[in-house]
Each structure stands twice: as C-alpha cells, then as structure tokens.
Amino acid sequence: MKDNLINQAYAIAQERYAAIGIDTEKAIESLQNVHLSLHCWQTDDVSGFESAGDLTGGIQSTGNYPGKARNIDEVRADIVKAKSLIPGTHRLNLHEIYGDFQGKKVDRNEVEPEHFASWIQWAKENDLKLDFNSTSFSHPLSGNLTLANPDKAIRDFWIEHTQRCRAVADEMGKAQGDPCIMNIWIHDGAKDFTVNRLKYRQIYKDSLDQILSVKRENMKDCLEPKLFGIGLESFTVGSEDFYWAYCGKNGIIPTLDTGHYHPTESVADKVSSLLLFAPELMLHVSRPVRWDSDHVTLMDDPTMELMKEIVYADAVDRVHFGLDYFDGAINRIGAYLIGARSAQKSILQAFLSPVAKIREYEEAGQTFQALTLLEMAKTLPWNAVWEEFCLRNNVPVGEDCIAVVEQYEKEVTSKR
Ligand code: RNT
Ligand code: ZN
User: Which atom of ligand 1 lies nearest, measured to the CA of 259?
Assistant: First the structure.
C-alpha cells in the first residue's frame, strides 16, 4: 500500500480527532505500550510435545488445515513469523506441554526449570517476554478431576505439577527481569449430576492453598474459571463464583476468558467490579461461537466493549492482554495475525474514544448529546490511525498481509 496515502489519511484523521480533543499521537504511544501475550498453542492446535495423545479436558480444536507445527523448532519459526506481522512488542504464553524435553519422557510431576532454559534463551534473542500455564489436560491422570480429585495420589500428582510450574514461571520471570504471569486453568467437573459440589470445591480450595502457600517473587498467579467443558456439562469445580471469592480473599489475579460465559453475558461489565477487589486482571481474549469454540478473535462488539471498559477504568497498566483461541481450520499464522490485530484495533479505538466529553454530558444529564458522541466515535477515522501505527512499526498494512502469509505457507508450512 502507498505509504504517502497512509500518511495523508493520518494527517486528516489527526485533525479530525483534535477537533474533539483527542490526541492521536498519544493514542499511538499508548498502543505501543500494550504488549499482548500471544498464546503458543495456536501453532499446533494445543498438541504440545509430550505424546501423540488426543486433546482432552473439555476443550476441542476442530479443523485439519495443513501445516501445523510438529516440533519445537516449527512452533518457534511460526511464532517468529506471526510476530513479524503484528505491530509492537509482545509476549509469548507457553503451556507446560511445550517444554524442551529433548525427546525424553518427562512426566508432569517431573518438570523442571531446565526444560524451559532453551525457551528462555530463545525468548531473549527474539525480544519476547514469557508467560506460563500449568497443563492438567491431555494426560492419563487427567480424567474428570485433577486438583479436586478425592483420590489423594492423583491429587498430589497435580499439586506437584502445579507447584513445579510455579518454579518454572519464577525462573522465567527472574531471567527476563519482569514477572511471568502464570495461569491456572483446570477442567475439573462432572458430565452428569453430582451431590458432591461442596466436597469437590473444598478439596480444590485446599489444593490451591497448598500450591499458593509458597511465595514466589518473579511470577504472578492467575486463576481462570469456566462455565462448562465438553463432556463435563453439569458441573465445573472452578466456577466463576468459586474463583472470584478465592481471588478476592487471597489477592490473586482473576483471568477472564471471553469464551467462558453464557453468550448473552457481558464480560466487559465484569472489569470494573473485579478491579475494585483484585490487584490486576488477566485476559484470554477469544471468540465463542455458541459455546467456548475458540474461534479466532475479531474486532467484534464484545471485544471492543471489553477494551473500552479497561480504558474507561484507567486500568491498562493493571491488565495482561492474553489471547486464547485455537482454530485448526484456517491458516494458523493468519490466525495469529487476525486475532492479535483485532485485539489491538479494539484497544486503539478505546484510546481514541472521546470519553471525557461523553462523561461530562452524562453527568449533566444530557443523554442525547452523550449518545451522539458515542455513536459518532464508531465511525471516526480510527483506521487511518491504525494504518499509521502499522506503518511506523514496519509491518504490512491492511490486505498486504495476505501475500506475506501466503508466501510463508508456500515456502514453509505447506511442506510439513
Ligand atoms: C480452556 C481455557 C484454557 C485453555 C488453554 C489452552 O477452556 O480457556 O485457558 O484454552 O489453557
Ligand atoms: Zn482460556
């Protein structure tokens, strides 16, 4: 695309925004300072490097698009490619099953920081900071219950795993001089009715208490609730109420996965409530289609509303912007590109919102005036600011991305 056209469009947009008191340069600077946490698991449909087993734990990746990453080198190459197409500097979110196990069988209760030493080195070389996740799905001991399992042997296995993951995360945080954000999500639940809800939640609470009793300086813990998983439809131990109470009481970061709610529920509305009681927030930005389907994130209304609520709450510095989807039906590098850029475009629009003026109107009871600005903001030339942002970051603008992704497919992924 012609650079000078983009510059011209930006200059006009800058003036138009200035007329309503918005500084586009400031918005660009703010967006530059938002670092997305890119999930590694879109590269290979959440397979990891442990075994050829199926994905379990109530989550499912559908689609057979060719070219998925088959090993650590391919995951890394794909991430490097994806990152080169996303403006700004970002983080990488790893799961424990992506450790560098060198072909050895390292069970989940044996994982050590050394299994992530090459990741730490690689991340440093590629200007990426790391985040982390324990992995309790896709394992012979996963079943329906892990940390909430009444069977002490199974439960202790997962406690050990999660404690070790916190040690790995701590090592990552230390090496990068910035806390590693470690998320705990477990699928524990029941397919059919249970009369033991309290019992399972008591057990889980105790497991978490044990896991979190060890203080770690270089990592931060987050807890991610869910409505239900496939095959576990009747009961979820780690429900929203469970975690929000636990996080509030213990000062832990809640994780909001936008796919984990009833389709009509507003995730955006949760931000201001949670931020009053929790230190920070972790996001898993996804796109649910009728269920937690993990379609690629788009710049849709729920995503834009979510980002606006964070900006309106003046909380950008208290939020970790993770992505979480795994669509096996489309070009996977393209999936990163679309999802990350859509999240960024939603954040940019929030930065460009004339919220101060709208607040003035609202507080004066001038509803018509407030609504006019709210509506107008939707069609202001924000895309000219976005394209300028891409240009300044040396990434392809607009449809120019398509050829780049196609070329990588032709030269690399189609040969797998
Ligand atoms: C599952 C959760 C969880 C996973 C990843 C792979 O419903 O959203 O975050 O998607 O940990
Ligand atoms: Zn998630």
Answer: 8
